[in-house]
Write a structure and sequence with these properties.
It comes from Amorphus orientalis. GO terms for molecular function: unfolded protein binding. This is DnaJ-class molecular chaperone. Keywords: Chaperone. By secondary structure, the chain is an alpha+beta fold. Among the domains are: 62 residues, Orthogonal Bundle (Helix Hairpins); 66 residues, HSP40/DNAj peptide-binding domain, CATH 2.60.260; 90 residues, HSP40/DNAj peptide-binding domain (Sandwich). The chain is 24% helix and 20% strand. It is built from eight helices and 13 strands. A four-stranded mixed sheet has the order 8-9-13-12. It has a three-stranded mixed sheet with strand order 3-7-6. A two-stranded antiparallel ribbon has the order 1-2. Helix 2 runs antiparallel to helix 3. About 22% of the residues have low confidence.
Length: 334
């Protein structure tokens, strides 16, 4: 692969913010979904992702700048010469073998696997360890730059990093089934289906919508957190909705039909005569979608509202009522 700085079009002194900005711009420009007619776009998209895997990680960027890993994130090979050179295949043909190590003639014993030769992982671990490329590197005079550093490259089949994002949805969107559009940190914008029975803070996983791995072959997932926007009228209570509905004194006393708002428009609500303030009426199926199917209810609590301005006739009526028909609504509290 090309130099990651060249791929992203940034200098070696570029800040983390500059690198991230360049990646987002290029990833969006070359995303396959936006370039269905350009077969090279997928290659460029993978190349941009691999470059960001290196430069977007402080440790990997430092390793690349020191020459410890190449543009694909793999440790660079080291050249050997002289009589003390490393011969990983000396000792083939038996149950175990010895090879000269990087420490000036030092020999190591390696395991043989399935009778075909020494365990390659064993050899590479020791080989890279003596020259600062992997686990087990020494810290003495024979240790090279970056001694003790862990291997950071991934296998071709291992997915890239997950991407995290948050989207805010309205109660109307939940009920209507309208999809929510969310911009991912990969630079891609996707439309997600809001799951039935969703609660604020619930997370949805989008398979393969995360960051690609260094080879661009497998992407991680996108984890989208859903937040429910506050509503000026309705309050969620599980799959139900709560609504406070003001009514007049005469509507409560005499009974009436009034218009009550729902998420899908106003409906007619019957108020029984002699209704007390605080009474709850239930509108079935006017709540939120349930995870198992169907919808919850709209729970309407009636709140008796008096006129904003003083009304002498109403006050006179209440005085006569208090005198001739007194009652105690708090008798149950005594």
């Amino acid at each position: 692969m090309r130099d990651p700085y060249t791929v992203l079009g940034v200098s070696k002194s570029a800040s983390e913010a500059d690198i991230k900005s360049a990646y987002r711009r290029l990833a969006k420009a070359y995303h396959p979904d936006h370039n269905a007619d350009d077969p090279r776009a997928k290659e460029r998209f993978a190349e941009v992702g691999t470059a960001y895997e290196i430069l977007g990680d402080k440790e990997k960027r430092a390793q690349y700048d020191r020459g410890e890993i190449d543009a694909d994130g793999r440790p660079r090979a080291h050249a050997f010469s002289g009589a003390g050179g490393f011969d990983p295949f000396s000792g083939f043909g038996g149950g175990g073998g010895r090879a000269a190590g990087a420490g000036g003639g030092r020999s190591r014993t390696y395991r043989y696997s399935s009778g075909a030769g020494p365990d390659i992982d064993d050899i590479l671990r020791d080989f890279m360890g003596g020259f600062g490329g992997g686990r087990g590197a020494g810290t003495g005079a024979g240790a090279g730059p970056g001694a003790g550093a862990e291997r950071t490259w991934k296998s071709p089949g291992e997915p890239g990093r997950d991407a995290e994002a948050t989207v805010t949805v309205s109660l109307e969107q939940i009920v209507s089934g309208e999809k929510a559009r969310v911009e991912l940190p990969t630079g891609k914008t996707v439309a997600i289906t809001i799951p039935p029975g969703v609660t604020s803070g619930q997370q949805v996983r989008l398979r393969g919508q995360g960051f690609p791995n260094p080879t661009g072959s497998v992407a991680g997932d996108a984890l989208v957190t859903i937040k429910i926007a506050p509503h000026p009228l309705f309050t969620p209570a599980g799959s139900d909705l709560k609504l406070d509905l003001p009514v007049t004194l005469y509507e409560a006393v005499l009974g009436d039909k009034v218009r009550a708002p729902t998420l899908e428009g106003a409906v007619e609500l019957t108020i029984p005569s002699g209704t007390s303030g605080g009474k709850m009426l239930r509108l079935r199926g006017k709540g939120l979608t349930k995870s198992g199917g169907g919808r919850g209810d709209l729970l309407v609590t009636l709140r008796i509202a008096l006129p904003d301005s003083a009304d002498g006739d109403l006050e006179d009526l209440m005085r006569r009522w208090r005198k001739h028909s007194p009652y105690d609504p708090r008798s149950d509290l005594k």
